[in-house]
Design a protein that fits this description.
Two copies of one chain form a homodimer. Chain A contains one helix and eight strands. Chain A has 119 residues and is mainly β. Chain A has a single domain, classed as Jelly Rolls (Sandwich). Chain A binds chain B through residues 1-7, 23-28, 30, 47-50, 54, 62, 67-70, 72-78, 81, 96-98, and chain B through 1-7, 23-28, 30, 47-50, 62, 67-70, 72-78, 81, 96-98.
């Protein structure tokens, strides 16, 4: 029931591809993340995933197209759809997704974060 | 899988206390709303509700305290907690909540919206 200031939370971390939990409701997490560079191709079999751009822009690559998502725009990636976020410059995003969501989905590797920090 | 531009969607309506659906994922709706004035006291028995302020600010009144929520801040109102949003000036907010959420919760009346427009 306390408010969360997004700018303040974003100031607390600098690492890329490492979502931080800033809220939880209805079995969903609200996360903040900073992205830069190319992520791995992956999909989430059971989770739809929302990316809301707070600052900057990035490209969401699908197997058959690419969508550029800019500040104040959001994108919902449906479950089962392979995707790869690519950010030429650092972008700050808010994520909204089930608490069960693993950042790299079905592609486990060195970028996989099994435990996320709560801010 | 198409992106949604929040500013563009906000430009499509002017009415207050009438949330518009702009996205759906994992049984949740993403809504946009413009608030001005005093809403009704209500609670949601089964739904937590997130208010993210896009432009302006508003007060969330609880029975025992008031939280002022400003641009770039969000607030999660847990299920079962009575609340009343009050906006002295117009504020634009993004809502995340289950698709089952009725805007006035347990307080049905003239402000209740049984059917929401999708933008």
């Amino acid at each position: 029931m306390e408010k969360v200031n997004v700018e303040q939370k974003l100031s607390l971390f600098a690492d890329h591809w490492s979502p931080k939990i800033v809220g939880e409701l209805n079995g969903q997490h609200v996360k903040l993340a900073k992205l830069k560079g190319e992520f791995v191709w992956h999909k989430h079999d059971n989770e739809d995933e929302l990316f809301f751009v707070l600052k900057g822009d990035f490209k969401m690559e699908y197997r058959d197209k690419t969508v550029v998502v800019k500040e104040n725009e959001f994108l919902i990636v449906p479950r089962g759809v392979e995707h790869r976020p690519v950010a030429d410059n650092e972008v700050s995003v808010m994520l909204f997704e089930p608490t069960t969501t693993l950042n790299t989905g079905n592609t486990k590797g060195e970028l996989t974060k099994h435990v996320l920090e709560k801010l």
